[in-house]
Amino acid sequence: MASDPDDDANLYLTLLCWAGLALATLEAFVQPLPVGLGAGAMAVAYLAGGVPAARSALAELWQDRRLDIDLLMVIAALAAAAVGAALEGAVLLALFSLSQTLEHRAMGKARRAVEALMQLRPETALREGPGGVEEVAVATLVPGDRVILRPGARVPVDGRVVSGAGHLDESTVTGESAPVRKEPGAPVHEATVNLDGILTVEVTRSLAQSTVAQMIRLVTEAQAMKAPSERFSDWFGQRYTIAVLAGSILAFLGFWFWGRPLDEALYRAATLLVAASPCAVVISVPAAILSALSAAARGGVLFKGGAALEGLAEVRVFAFDKTGTLTTGQAGVTGIVALDGDEAAFLALLAGLEAQSEHPIAGAIRRAVSDRGITPEPMTGVQSFPSEGITGQDGQGTLWAGNARMLERMGATLPEALAAMADGAETLVLLGRGAQVLGAVTVADEPRATAAEALEALRASGTGLLMMTGDRQPVASRIGARLGLLPEEIHAGLLPGDKVQLVDAATARGKVAFVGDGVNDAAALARADVGVAMGVAGSEVALQAADVALMAEDLRKLAAARKLARRTARVIRQNLTLALGAMVVLVTGSLFFDLPLPLAVIGHEGGTLLVVLNGLRLLADPIRSR
Fold first, then answer.
1. pLDDT value of residue 174
2. Rounded Cα gap, residues 60 and 76, in angstroms
3. Across-strand partners of 392?
């Protein structure tokens, strides 16, 4: 990726400043230079190192009424020159310029870590048309177009496979390290790589609305949303900068009052100004937050700002929706009973209702009906009842499908012939017309392959666990036992309001995160301190719904994200301790031990670089490989 022009300009000015300093140092300590060359070199060092900082600081002061730290450095350098220590001032400006250049380039690396995904987008695609296959610009593709993907090609836009089968490397979007097999009907995401097979893909989203474009937009917004610790460091930096400037003036007056010569008093005040400047304190938090956000995004986890990152680190209880979160959501029909004996007609009615539902259980019923070659009956006036079921109209009147609560709503009773199905540990779906029950199917879901490992990792980190579901207790207990959950951690038969109450009660133990699919259970996601949506690649609604979005359906990413969040919190504490500690040592030395200005400069700029580099370590977090 091309470098930022501003970063390049800063680099050239820094090199020019250091060249001027080198010539000025040569004249001061080695041998005299031709007349005027030494003074010219000193002027170049001051101009190249001081003008950019002064211009930036004055612009901040004029436009935003903010006293920028850069201004303190320029004032300190001018004060040094005023008392005959021009070389020390040049050293200050040179080190400050170098520090700013390295800081900007390092932080730019963190910002570009996610934007680099855009560079993976191919410029052209092979579009299938009436006249055959033609190569077209990706920007011209619209929903409904069909493109051909050959082995090794990158997916140009979001779409779904309509023919062919193969494996795709989705690590750039979801962080999933293992190739994912794609068959007809499966979604594919922009910037992923077709490893084998020839696929025909139908475009479902334009380039501007693609998954990667949304990721870039969300991460950019997240970087602009300050975390509480960032807001504190910004607040502290502004007020402390004013205090440093005022304190340096008072120190100058104090040194002069106690008998120090004017030039020495000014020199000591300039040293204090450098020693007490809060550059390292102000940059310590954003350096860590920005690096962590970039590392997480490359690993398939999107945080909606630094506040969500800090919030996840502080979570003490994780509450999980069951269906589609802890389980695959790919439930299968395990039993069918039609009370009139006509199983095909029964399934046609049931599938006609469930065709209007997005619930995973409805998907299982639709797949079972499709496998049997049965055509669903058309329905009108379909209405959903959360955690109960669904109703609709056919040619003979009102039909309903749902659980025991829907049975009670309709004033029906469970026939004795279905009692055995209701006693099992599988989900029971009843179909009826008015108060008459027509039959039932049982559906069983399976835990996700990664769920047990993820829950174990979260429990090992000291957090509490809760599983919430609208299913019956036997169904919930079967899944919970396979995931290693304790009986008291399993809550079944819940309505949406019940989940909100459980989340509310859990807050007595500390911050609570609710993990769901980002669309259902919106109330619980909103009530939780941190809402987490999983498996949301390609889902604009889910990406917007939660504080944290897991692009892949891998719960281990949640445990890895929390580990990254806690590591970020440790790095922030390390940075603040280092920055404040260095500042105390330097200020003490400048007030009571005649600390030389060059040492104050080295200590100040060195501390700033150290906290930036310590924060950038988070860019290498292994979240992507977990």
1. 63
2. 18
3. 399
The more confidently predicted of residues 224 and 613 is 613
**Which residue would you say has higher pLDDT here, 622 or 103?**
622
Hey, what are 419's tokens? 């009692």
Query: How far apart, in whole angstroms, are the C-alpha atoms of residue 325 and residue 479?
Result: 12
pLDDT of 464 over the 80 cut: yes
Residue owning tokens 């990726």: 1
Annotated catalytic residue within 321, 517, 529, 621 = 321
Q: Is 4 among the catalytic positions? A: no
At 2 the pLDDT is: 45
Tokens linked to 196: 């084998």
Question: Using CA atoms, how far apart are residues 530 and 507, in angstroms rounded to an integer?
Answer: 11
The confidence score (pLDDT) of residue 80 equals 75
Q: Is the pLDDT of residue 232 over 70?
A: no
**Residues 445/457, Cβ–Cβ less than 8 Å:** no
What is the per-residue pLDDT for 113?
Answer: 52
Question: d(Cα 168, Cα 91) in Å, to the nearest integer?
Answer: 54
CA dihedral 333→489→455→547, nearest 10 degrees, is 90
Among 448, 421, 461, which residue's Cα sits nearest to residue 437? 421
Q: Which residue in 157, 118, 155 sits closest to 140, CA to CA? A: 157
Single-letter amino acid code for the residue at 75? I
- Cα(504)–Cα(506) distance, integer angstroms: 5
- Tokens describing residue 95: 């080190």
The token pair that represents 217 in the structure block: 């937009």
Structure tokens at 63: 């436009």
Sequence-ordered alpha helix ranges (H) in 130-195 = 171-174
Q: Could you identify the residue written with the tokens 């010569």?
A: 261
- 466-478 in b/e form (b: 16+ CB < 10 A) is bbbbbbbeebbbb
Does residue 317 surpass a pLDDT of 90?
A: yes
Higher pLDDT, 76 or 571: 571
Cα–Cα distance, 167 to 183 (Å, whole number): 9
SS3 of 5-46: the string is: HHHHHHHHHHHHHHHHHHHHHHHHHCCCCCCCHHHHHHHHHH
Q: What is the rounded CA–CA span in Å between residue 532 and residue 553?
A: 12
**Higher-scoring residue by pLDDT: 540, 609:** 609
pLDDT for res 1: 42
3-state secondary structure 481-529: HHCCCCHHHEECCCCHHHHHHHHHHHHHHCEEEEEECCCCCHHHHHHCC
pLDDT at 66 over 60: yes
